[in-house]
């Protein structure tokens, strides 16, 4: 069957879901320096990754969205990546956080919540931004389209992405490789990258080798994880049901002082993964 084109909501408009890489220009060094100053770059910022279980535990009700809004308003993270967000929940997040300066993007994944609304990943970012794409990842079993949603800062050489890798017999290795390839394409254009998501893989899983920097054991990629010692053991505190580390925040090498903390929440079977990084 020919894949169906999925649409993605951003702001008040609709963008096509299967979008190729844009030929966007990288800011000049002087432009980048001025943009960094305007954006408060050079400071330590916080980041949040959470699978809110918006359908499986809440059927589209806004309960988990209310929890996220409260936490975001209090902690003011720079980038938030979320998984399993129903359109009703996304609408609530977007409206409630607009006055706090957040731009919101919802990348649909080809399935629906119990309330009939669309379902997918979310990126919230506190800077002027635009969607680069919502790319489909390999999934021969096709129980749910898996995608990578990426948003780029308008005047700042940074891309923030959210993804959700399959949990079952689907092609996890192929999905992670596709994510790594896309990240590498951004980096080749001079962009720094923040990548958050529920990868449904433990840190030592060989499927994650293309993501972890080569300084990690068996690493073959270029990114560093927020809740593991830089170039140390691939590890981290459990983020799902108190048993497994499945959620990650990865950064490109320009980010330093990485720290991570997992905070439990009653609205999801995943914990909040909070990251700290400086650029």
TrEMBL record:
InterPro entries reported for this sequence: Endo/exonu/phosph_ase_sf, Endo/exonuclease/phosphatase
Write out the GO MF terms. Answer: endonuclease activity; exonuclease activity
What is the name listed in the Swiss-Prot or TrEMBL entry for this protein?
Endonuclease/exonuclease/phosphatase family protein
Query: What Pfam families does the database record attribute to this sequence?
Result: Exo_endo_phos
* Keywords from the named record: Endonuclease, Exonuclease, Hydrolase, Nuclease
Keyword Metal-binding applies = no
Domain Endonuclease/exonuclease/phosphatase, which positions?
Answer: 49-270
Q: Does the keyword Hydrolase apply?
A: yes
